[in-house]
Amino acid sequence: MISTVSTRISAVVLGLAALATLAACGGSGSSRPAGTVPADVDVTVRAKDGLVWDAKSYAATAHDGTVIVYGVNDSGLAHNLHIVDKDGKDVAAGIDLAGSGSSDTLTLTVTPGEYQIICKIPGHSGTMHATLTVK
Ligand SMILES: [Cu+2]
Asked: How far does residue 57's CA lie from ligand 1's centre (Å)?
């Protein structure tokens, strides 16, 4: 009984340490604090518990040929966010949404059309796929 409790406490401490590490290196690239949606974002995509995005379809209007996608991880698992064309090819570098609360932006340079938003972590893309329509 005591060993079970101490194992759980160790897991919590490890989790907190991981979060602290993530926070410490949060200054890389275009990472922003979760929940603060940058003003120039065209579409926000949130990962939710249950291996789903927060919508099945998203729409965005390109500005000067680009669409800025803001990814946020609202779930308890690690995810990533990739945008692929109808052939399954990435149309931009994907972003990591490594831990709960993490976020990042992805800039697409695309022509109007339909794309898929997926998570490429094994076992996730079955449910973590949504349509992004760019106008
Ligand atoms: Cu995922």
From this structure: 17
Query: From ligand 1's centre to the CA of 56, what distance in Å?
Result: 15
Superfamily of domain 32-134: Cupredoxins -  blue copper proteins (2.60.40.420)
pLDDT tens digits along 15-47: 444 444 434 333 334 444 556 788 889 999 999
CA of 65 from ligand 1 middle (Å) equals: 28
Distance 120 CA to ligand 1 centre (A): 6
The conformation of residue 12, written as its DSSP 8-state character, comes to H
C-alpha to C-alpha distance for 4 and 59, rounded to whole angstroms: 47
In the chain, where are the structural domains located? 32-134
Residues paired with residue 107 on neighbouring β-strands, in sequence order: 68
Question: pTM above the 0.90 mark?
Answer: no
